[in-house]
Amino acid sequence: MTKKLKRMATLALAAALLQPHLAAADERLKAIREKWIPGTPMLTEFLPLYPCHSEELPCGQLPPPAVQKVSFKGALKGDAKRGEKIALDVRWGNCATCHSLPGHKGGTVGPSLEDYASRAPSLEYTYQRIWDTRVFNPDAHMPLFGTNSVLTEDEILDVMVFIHQR
Ligand code: HEC
């Protein structure tokens, strides 16, 4: 076997072995969202859920989740105040670390969203950007808020109302 093949076989084996653990982790992530209040420190009982701190470990070499293409057909309805809180809170949406936002100077990793609404982006576009930005740019340095269950649908909507306001 070539070195590359060996490596691929090892990775496939690692992925297969980890599959049941990942399903269990999914369940536990749901449990987190029932108990943990966003914006507060993570509960210590949940910390063992994040055991992978090295790209050298099999868990650090798992392939990224499949790209999720979503469609948004609804109306822009939500709580702008809550959206602002989610976007500013480093333990919740954390958008401000990379973006300036309406009324707030922020990081410059991503484009400024200060007057995002003036560019009249479609809701469909914004929703997909936040849910899984890889649809537009596979290498974008932005978290996959929907695909990775970082934010709930309601939370994404609140953030959308906040950044779409004029
Ligand atoms: C780690 C940095 C980072 C974080 C955190 C982040 N973003 Fe982004 N965002 C980016 C980058 C980088 C881009 C540009 C992607 C590209 O090049 O395609 C982007 C693009 C966007 C766009 C498209 C902008 C446009 O002009 O079309 C929107 C909307 C957006 N982000 C919203 C958000 C929201 C809302 C949050 C928080 C829930 C967030 N982002 C969190 C880095 C980030």
From TrEMBL:
Protein's name according to its UniProt entry: Cytochrome c domain-containing protein
UniProt cross-references to PROSITE patterns, sorted A to Z: CYTC
Highest taxon above the source species: Bacteria
Gene Ontology molecular function: any one: electron transfer activity
Lineage of source species: Bacteria, Pseudomonadati, Pseudomonadota, Betaproteobacteria, Rhodocyclales
Residues of the signal peptide: 1-25
Keywords, sorted A to Z: Heme, Iron, Metal-binding, Signal
InterPro entries (alphabetical): Cyt_c-like_dom (IPR009056), Cyt_c-like_dom_sf (IPR036909), Thiosulf_SoxX (IPR030999)
